[in-house]
Amino acid sequence: MEWERALTHHFLMVGSGGDASPIRSFEVSDGTIAEAAGLSGPDARELAMASFTRHVVQAGGLPNALRLGLHPNMDAQGLPGCFAYLVLTLYVASLRGNGEERNGDFRHKLRRFLGSERSFMNMPGVARMWAGLQRWLARRRLIDVRFRELVFPEVPVKWSHIGISLKFAFPTKTDATLMASFLHDKPAAAGDPRRLLAEFAPVIDRGRRSAGMADAFEDFRDAFAAGERLLEDHRFWRLVRSCSTGGRAEASSPAYVSCGFDEEAQLVFSAALEDGTKLSPGPRTLSEAVSDLAAAGGPAASSPAYLVFRQTGFGRWKSTEGFERAGPRVRLGLPRAAHRRLQKGSHRFVESGDWLFTAEPVRVALAEEMVASFTAAPSSERLASISVSGGVRTGGLWLGRPAFMPYVDAGGSELLVRAGPGAAGTVSLDCQGRGPERLQADGPVSGTWFLEPPGGRQRSCRQVAFAPNAQPHRDALAGDEAGEILLDWAGGSAQARFTGQLPAEAGWSQAQGAMSDLVEAVYAGGRRGWDEGDLVAIVGEAFGEAADPWAMLRVLRDATVVQPRLRHRWRGRTWTLQPPALMPWGNGAVVQGAVCEAEADVFRKAAASVEAVPFRVQGPSDLAPPLTGCVGGDLQALAARMGWRIEQASICPDERPLAFRETDHTLLGKEPASRWDWEAAKFVADRRRGDGAVSLTRWTQAASRDHDVYQVLAEGRERRLHSRDAALVLAHCLARRPLFTVAGGYLEVQVRGAFLPDAIAAQLRLSTLANAGLVDGRPRYRVTPEDAARVARLLPGAVAGAARAAVGHDADRVASVRHSSGRIRAAWTGGALTTLTAGGPGWGRCLNEGS
To answer: Chain centroid to CA 280: how far?
Structure first.
């Protein structure tokens, strides 16, 4: 049964690549049988064939299967029961003759393979099993869309026993030898389908090929003549590609240039060998990395006119040779001389040394046109396939959120989107351009969808399956092994529990919009942590130019979704999901950590089951994650049901002013990379030290073997920090330049790229029950007058308007006491005016003290 299951899944079902095209042939060989068994390594083929022979050939049922079509009934297990025997006939039909018999004589090859003297003249059971498989697939496809359609070939009347197997077997070993010999003599035909069709036709006519090859060639020729170009995955063209590379995938260049981003959102490049050996001493400009690459004999040495970069992560790119395997979207690196020869209005480029780099990914067709404009590259008719790229994966499915739908490229061919059984939502596509287009959705989508050309004979089809929400992570999340958590502020004393009353009437707001999509995407791909460049890029996917990705990343951090960690031994940061937990708060609890929508729904139901009232409230803007919690209930039972921990005590930030987390890392071996320009209010990457009464400089290590250090100098004292955000706030405090303003119940940031230190932001989140958000591209924090005064005390000189907010708030408090008819009383607590409500916390103590 195991071989029946493995072969059925491998040959009859949609694979990981999503190919749902109708099956018109089977490539059965030692290698594909080993792939079906999931074996790899140098001995995989021998082990697979030994097991296949033992369980299928020598099990005893083969003679009756070939003669009578008898086979086990495995319908209850979701298997046809006959397919392993049919695969055996396909394997035999694909074997090469040994010269003692005609190549097409199936029975001679079967006797030789089985080591038998039987004649095998009577095998009508093979045709009966094919008919049975056809009926079984028709029934199965009604309930399981993963099974592909099987298109039966036309078989001559005289081929009543094994004719279907002979037609389905393609390519055979003889076919592969024939095509390899042809391309050895005429290698240029491999890149020109029109030429190949004309020059290979006589080979087909001479009859030195299998019946399956003749059918495949005819089908490819007819489709090409009809103007179809979605033929890159056609079975005949796959054989051409395989034989043109000797049956092996094209080897990668031994050296390459990689591209990413640093903490200042600047492009950085480096050259390396495929074995991981670094050729660049550290972050470089593109022109410097090209020089490193040329010295190692990489693609820049033989083709210095341009570099093509393919995407290897959301924020990472890697140079590759040519466009053939670069993917649907690429980025180009060009020397200045080549850029000057481009036509006006070409795609925007950014400078990186003496080279230029496309500011955004471009379609392959556009990139080829740009290269052709200065290299006079010959044009040819490009075949295409339906490719699906980008997007976010969760549990083997695409995340079906509008902001993260995958891209589809069909080489300019028109495609239709067809919903499979049970699919929910709406998906559309405008795929008539020359490059990839994103699938469009109005809201979350789920189920299986098919991408296929309209009308006619279907030769190409892709299946995409969506999940509307991220699947909860059951394994442990990445933690300390990913690196030390990067902190802004020093820790302080423990606080047992937050006081106050949670709002029982807050309700449960529905998650929607780009922010909900972003949280789901970050959660879905974050089980093992996010590379910083990838995470910044995925934030950019959600909001585009509507929000600064780095600012939004800080919003997610302050909302306890992610946390930054310093990489071990190397420069840079990794971002990990914060494990979920319950934070006791007054008469309930607040949820801390990363929680996907599916887990949030489980929490809502679990809270109700322990007599708690769940709530989820929105932040101060649409660009703020919601805050989740519950009122009342048994927190211990709720935590047990969710599998979460309870944070028994919250660590309050150090109450000393300017208690920033400093580092003992020295500046030895580092050099200035950028400085804070007080007039421009931004970092300037001019490799100079900061100046002025208070200076801020970022120091980097050229070989990237140590983390960046931010140096703040004021009044002869030096402070060194790892956190950029903390260093910026510290510099403004020492310079007595306001960085934050309090107005209308909010603390707003006045300089782009500035944020409250992490511990202070965490306290504001819990005291106001609101996550920070972005307004006009800058963070906004909800604050009470007491909060504002405390922040102003911890960050002296950096907060404006806190005193005015406190005075106005005290006047409102006095007025509320005077008009409450005794229900509200005033109290002087901790040097500040507070109010107590009848029956609330502290009311009894107030009455006793008053009496």
So the answer is: 27
